[in-house]
């Protein structure tokens, strides 16, 4: 089996599923050579991946959490941006940021999500024929922009520049888009410091983080700006790709669509978990070994990069019965779409809420769905999903 998990075409044509299945069976901790780098480990079995996620003494996030990340850019934000930090900084930052998505905030988030999602679905049904990716991207983008108090006139630009930052055609385009996002949040934070409100940016600017025993300080401008960027990116990617992938899965499996419609709202939570397991927008995450260790029986050296293929874990036949079947009533369903351990995605609760309300509205407003063109996928091995899904909705 030829294995090249850095080949963009492998992802645009969906060929990676068979490669990962072969690795799970024959070489679950695989040394992956690189033409342009030192190589890396590819870990593909569920329990091995969870083991790495939860072993923060052996594996670090601060040196980058994806293949092809720019070491200079990572170094500039390490220990100040949640996704590229280790304890104690990670713990301290997350304790502040997580408050905005905690149980106490659920009623506020619920009301915001319901308002946004109902309007988006209603407009899509009224149009009938839509490019569903244009519909799907409005949900998380509009929700997170509203959460941050960003004026609605700027929502479309924010969504476009976020997509460009992660899916631009080349590194220069992606870097330029990230710079624009950082500048946008720099100006927004300055304005919120002058005129604070009840939005996400104002609230975290007023918070304090621990820096030692009994010592606290406010978050720095850099910590706020970097993590606003992280929240914006995470919110947009997961919900957009999962909503689109879930709709396609239901179109391709009419029996599952009818099963979900007949179950009604009570069947939606299980369906959301299956959509998340099935779509896995976060294809891989990376860690760097900071001490000699083992994954299974394979020795890992200090400095080795270890990639965790979430898409493979979610199809691991030893964990999920009939793993290659999409079943809206699957239970149990302990997928790791949001990662595991301390780095479990900060916005997981919000993403689940958005998808729950979306599918409730979908089964309530739509009777039939059908393709009107060929679905197309992007060519990323990091955030993967549909880039085009033309469909017709009928009520």
Kindly describe this structure:
Helices cover 50% and strands 13% of the residues. The chain is an alpha+beta fold and 395 residues long. Helix 6 (106-127) packs parallel to helix 15, helix 7 (132-147) packs across helix 8 (155-167) and helix 7 (132-147) runs antiparallel to helix 11. It is globular. The chain starts with 7 loop residues before the first helix and ends with a strand.
Using brief descriptors, characterize the structure shown.
single chain; alpha+beta
Secondary structure layout:
Blueprint: H1 8-12, H2 16-26, E1 29-32, E2 40-43, H3 46-54, E3 59-60, H4 71-77, H5 89-97, H6 106-127, E4 129-131, H7 132-147, H8 155-167, H9 171-194, H10 200-205, E5 208-212, E6 215-218, H11 221-252, H12 254-263, H13 268-279, E7 284-289, E8 293-295, E9 298-300, E10 305-309, H14 310-313, H15 348-365, E11 368-371, E12 376-377, E13 386-388, E14 390-394
Parallel strand pairs: 2-10
Antiparallel strand pairs: 1-2, 3-7, 4-14, 5-6, 7-10, 8-9, 11-14, 12-13
Helix pairs in contact: 6-7, 6-15, 7-8, 7-11, 8-9, 8-11, 9-11, 11-13, 11-15, 13-15
């Amino acid at each position: 089996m030829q294995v090249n998990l850095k080949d963009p075409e492998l992802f645009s044509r969906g060929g990676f599923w068979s490669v990962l299945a072969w690795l799970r069976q024959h070489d679950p901790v695989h040394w992956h050579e690189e033409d342009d780098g030192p190589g890396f480990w590819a870990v593909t079995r569920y329990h091995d991946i969870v083991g790495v996620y939860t072993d923060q003494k052996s594996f670090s996030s601060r040196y980058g959490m994806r293949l092809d990340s720019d070491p200079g850019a990572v170094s500039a934000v390490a220990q100040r941006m949640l996704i590229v930090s280790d304890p104690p900084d990670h713990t301290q930052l997350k304790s502040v940021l997580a408050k905005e998505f905690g149980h106490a905030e659920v009623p506020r988030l619920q009301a915001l999500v319901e308002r946004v999602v109902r309007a988006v679905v209603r407009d899509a049904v009224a149009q009938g024929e839509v490019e569903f990716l244009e519909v799907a991207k409005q949900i998380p983008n509009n929700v997170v922009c509203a959460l941050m108090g960003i004026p609605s006139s700027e929502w479309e630009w924010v969504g476009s520049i976020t997509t460009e930052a992660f899916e631009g055609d080349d590194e220069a385009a992606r870097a330029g888009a990230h710079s624009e996002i950082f500048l946008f949040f720099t100006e927004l934070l300055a304005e919120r410091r002058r005129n604070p409100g009840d939005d996400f940016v104002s609230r975290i600017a007023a918070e304090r983080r621990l820096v030692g025993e009994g010592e606290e300080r406010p978050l720095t401008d850099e910590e706020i700006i970097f993590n606003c960027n992280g929240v914006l990116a995470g919110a947009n990617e997961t919900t957009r790709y999962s909503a689109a992938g879930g709709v396609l899965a239901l179109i391709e499996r009419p029996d599952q669509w009818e099963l979900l419609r007949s179950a009604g709202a009570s069947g939606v939570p299980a369906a959301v978990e299956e959509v998340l397991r099935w779509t896995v927008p976060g294809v891989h995450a990376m860690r760097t070994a900071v001490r000699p260790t083992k994954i299974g029986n394979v020795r890992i050296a200090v400095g080795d990069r270890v990639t965790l293929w979430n898409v493979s874990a979610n199809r691991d036949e030893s964990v999920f019965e009939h793993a290659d079947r999409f079943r809206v009533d699957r239970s149990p369903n302990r997928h790791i779409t949001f990662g595991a351990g301390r780095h479990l995605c900060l916005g997981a609760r919000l993403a689940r809420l958005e998808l729950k309300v979306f599918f409730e509205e979908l089964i309530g407003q739509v009777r039939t769905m059908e393709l009107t063109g060929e679905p197309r996928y992007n060519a990323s091995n990091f955030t993967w999903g549909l880039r085009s899904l033309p469909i017709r909705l009928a009520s």
